[in-house]
Amino acid sequence: MSLIVGLTGGIGSGKTTVADYFASLGAAVVDTDVIAHELTVAQGAAMPEIEAAFGDSVLLADGGLDRAAMRRLVFSDPSEKCRLEAILHPMIRAASEARCQSAMAARAPYVMLVVPLLLESGAYRERVDRILVVDCDEDVQIARVTARSGLSIEEVRAIMATQASRPERLAAANDVVLNSAGTEQLIAQVVALHRHYLELTVL
Ligand code: ATP
């Protein structure tokens, strides 16, 4: 049986780290953030539409998306965010679906589909067989994101306020990985879940 596990979690919870561990065990990973990035680099498939919609003030010299300029635009006018998402989201959905299909055609044991806003957007829920939540103490999330990005504590809290709450995520989860501590505990949980997913694929 084919199995698609939707992996989600709050900002800085450790989604990429967890997905990388699953990949090292043999899972096929399809990451919607990676796809979004690929679509918006120079020559990315979304760039002609983005340029037509927003003009060249949101382009870098190489033709890729100037993320800082786009952030400023979206901040000054939230409706611009909707216009950008109307271009990107259908492309991300189509590309992620195609990659899941080709991973299954290539007989991957199962697919880990990483969707940061899986619960918030709703668009992916019917495409996944199970939901795996990377759970994390909020203080740890804030510490990780501020250390990595240079965002302030208030900015990280503001982003977290737009995302599903920890109880909402846990209520929707079929499986949970707790990633508030070190990587050793994390690896043990990933290995146990990997075995469980392999068992499910042979049912
Ligand atoms: P985002 O929502 O911003 O895309 P994410 O959920 O994908 O983030 P990661 O990028 O995997 O999270 O992790 C965030 C940061 O925390 C990274 O710098 C990562 O190396 C670190 N990190 C993740 N898990 C652990 C851990 N168990 N121990 C120590 N550091 C960790």
UniProtKB/TrEMBL annotation:
InterPro entries: Depp_CoAkinase, P-loop_NTPase. Signal peptide: none annotated. Pfam families: CoaE. The keyword Nucleotide-binding applies. Pathway: Cofactor biosynthesis; coenzyme A biosynthesis; CoA from (R)-pantothenate: step 5/5. GO terms for cellular component: cytoplasm. GO terms for biological process: coenzyme A biosynthetic process. It comes from the Bacteria. Keywords: ATP-binding, Coenzyme A biosynthesis, Cytoplasm, Kinase, Nucleotide-binding, Transferase. Its main location: cytoplasm. Gene3D superfamilies: P-loop containing nucleotide triphosphate hydrolases (3.40.50.300). ATP binds at G12, S13, G14, K15, T16, T17. One of its GO terms (molecular function) is ATP binding. Its EC number is 2.7.1.24. It is an enzyme of class 2 (transferase). It catalyses: 3'-dephospho-CoA + ATP = ADP + CoA + H(+). It is found in: Cytoplasm. Belongs to the CoaE family. Catalyzes the phosphorylation of the 3'-hydroxyl group of dephosphocoenzyme A to form coenzyme A. PANTHER family: BIFUNCTIONAL COENZYME A SYNTHASE-RELATED, DEPHOSPHO-COA KINASE-RELATED. This is Dephospho-CoA kinase. It comes from Candidatus Propionivibrio aalborgensis.
